[in-house]
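Hi there, hope your week has been kind to you so far. Thanks so much in advance, here it is:
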Amino acid sequence: MMGSEQDTASRVHEHTSSRCPCRPMQRRTHQKSRNGCRNCKRRRVKCDEGKPSCSNCIRFSLPCDFSVDQIASNDTVPEDASAPPVVTPTLARRRGRPLKIEKWILNPEASGHKTITEPRLHFPMPKRIADPSPPLNTNDLELLHHYITNTSLTLGDNVVLWRDKVPRLAFEFPYVLRLLLAMSALHQTHLHAPGSSGYQQLATAHHNIALREVTGLLPTISGKDCSALYIATVLICNYHFAKPPAIDDEPGMVEETGIGWWYVFRGVRFVVESMGMEAIFSGHIGPFPPEAPQGGPADPLETTSGYGYIPWERPLVSLAVMLSGSSTLGSESLIVASEALMECYREVYGTADKPEYRTHGKTYVVMRWPWVLGDDFVGQVQNLVPEALILLAYFAVLIQTLERFWYMKGWAKYTIMGIEKKLDPAYLQWIQWPRNQIELERTIEKSTTT
């Protein structure tokens, strides 16, 4: 009897217990939601809606919709309406661990899954990241380091511009970056001439890629890229000067007289005349007018006795008189060129009454002369017009004042030697003065460096 009562009590207890197997199992209450991420919906699993990424997406290393939404909401760059829809894979698999996303991206058809075009949220990226250039390798990183720590200090008196501002511009415009690397490679060649053929190859490769891009962009120059194109054209000019003339692969009269740089110099003039200096010196390389020079490379010749003003007035006046009596076709333009050249001499060297003692490194003055001349002058040089060659010989003296910059080294002598080879012997006396000045300055330079 006692056992029967215990059995009955046990059965009553089991039936009334929530764990009683005889009772139907009740579902837990939960709040339904349709806000799960797309990956969970596609796999038909519960999404915990965790942000910035749900736990399922974290577990399987999938890009979660919630992280995309967050990036898109924080990005202030306007969305590109023309961007193509994102191609996403449709899984033909059972529920479970999904195929790794890397396989979809690298080879979607090899995985046996079809690809469909599915509208998806497109989140814009900054423009400079949206147009990627080939990644830098270790050689390029070495060149970039050398540019920032060395080359940038040698490109002009405005060190802040070349060391701090231009690299910032280069990160937005890849062709500027390539030209920085090209100049850095040539600088390495200048510093380490023996065994520097590898640097020459790197310089040529970067320069050629950048040159093609710059040439294509110049006709459509705008306020958005005028600063970059200005810096690019200046660097292309510097590159041309930095490349040793003896190995230059541009044959012909223009190169033999040292005036091949004229063509690349026209790119700088085009940018300035198209946009103006105020628009160019804005943004990364501002302000306008440019800041005062912060001190470029020290020139040991600046303090050398006998160095500075040279008595240029008499020989250039004699040249002007000769040109005024010339019957050469186009002599009027040659007279204008002579007057402009005298003005450059005056600003570089001063006069006998007011001599200049700091005569070197005035690039903006020296390059004003080719700036004001037209293409007809280059044509006269190509046609071996004696008066044009004589003017170019006098300009070579001004070029020598820029040889404090490593990329200009040797150009004065190279120019005068090319003119001597091509000039009619009857006119050789007219280039005696510029030839003597170039030789004298080279002698002074050698004496100060030995």
User: Anything to note?
Assistant: Residues 15 and 300 are 106 Å apart (CA to CA). The radius of gyration is 36 Å. The chain has a mean pLDDT of 75. The chain has three domains: 38-125, 134-285, 302-449.
